[in-house]
Amino acid sequence: xxxxxxxxFFSEKHLALDLRSTTAGEAVWEIVERLxxxxxxxxxxxxxxxxxxxxxxxxxxxxxxVAFPHARTNLVDRILLGxxxxxxxxxxSDSAEPVHLLFVIAVPQQMVNDYLICVGALAxxxxxxxxxxxxxxxxxxxxxxxxxxxxxxAA
Length: 155
Hints:
Layout: E1 15-16, H1 24-37, H2 44-57, E2 61-62, E3 66-67, E4 70-73, E5 80-90, E6 99-108, H3 112-126, H4 129-137, H5 141-149
Helix pairs in contact: 1-2, 4-5
């Protein structure tokens, strides 16, 4: 059971439905820029460096063209979730398949349990191929978030 509603982490201003970037570093930066432009992340460059350092140590690419780049840091005081979608796909060095859905997560240093709940819930939702397909086909931010939250049985 999820004890934290995923809807608490969603914000349309943190969603990029059409990432222009084709490499992991550029795509992560595009999403981090969204977080900065929204006013929710003050030190975007420092956070980006932490995320990419973490990504170099251990890739966050999961099956199905999904990645969860993240960093635990004192730069934020609540969990921030930036989401990017790329129909063309983003290249991550450790992955043979392109990534189409990126979930960039900024986690306060002390919020380990909340972070694990958030990532676990997202990973479970995104295991469903029909859900991933629907997210790739969503035409608006509202439709994207509605689909992400839809109660769908895993096939």
